[in-house]
Amino acid sequence: MQSNVAYAQPAYAPVAAPARRLTVVQGGAAHPQAPAVIWKRGTKRSLALCIAAVTALVLITAALLFAQAVSRSTAYDAAVSAIDAVASVTVQPGDTLWGIAQGYAVDGLSTRQVVDLVKDWNQLDGGLISPGMTLIVPAA
């Protein structure tokens, strides 16, 4: 039984891979010719300039990050030194260190920084507190 379906021929013809050339080197040994790596004039200089630019960018970024950290530390120290009173809080069931820190917020400090401050003042290793504990917190 013959079919009336016509099959299209591929639009491309398979191409054979080019034959590898052999180069004879001193002593008569032959090896496949590999492409030579040639440094064009100015390429080494361009590479050196690129490396210098990347190094400068890394150093500038590090300097900016350091300056920002120093600025944050100075702002943190100023906000902590502005605290003129402290309060004593007894932890109730359901209280969290985060919730307590939000309730005793300090101008210029984030909630995370107040949590760290309360942990430092009360010598807490972790963030776990239990009902009945008495904590020293910044007075609102």
- Please, what is the average pLDDT? 77
Helix content class: 40-55%
Record field, number of beta strands: 4
Low-confidence parts: none
CATH topology of the largest domain: Membrane-bound Lytic Murein Transglycosylase D, Chain A
Beta-strand percentage range: 5-15%
Q: Describe the strand arrangement of the main beta sheet, using strand numbers.
A: 1-2
> What gyration radius follows from the Cα positions, in whole Å?
36 Å
What's the CATH architecture of the largest domain? Roll
What class do helices, strands and sheet pairing give?
alpha+beta
Give the C-level CATH assignment of the largest domain: Alpha Beta
- How would the global form be characterised? elongated
* Sheet with the most strands, sense and barrel status: 2 strands, antiparallel
Kindly report how far apart the N and C termini lie: 96 Å
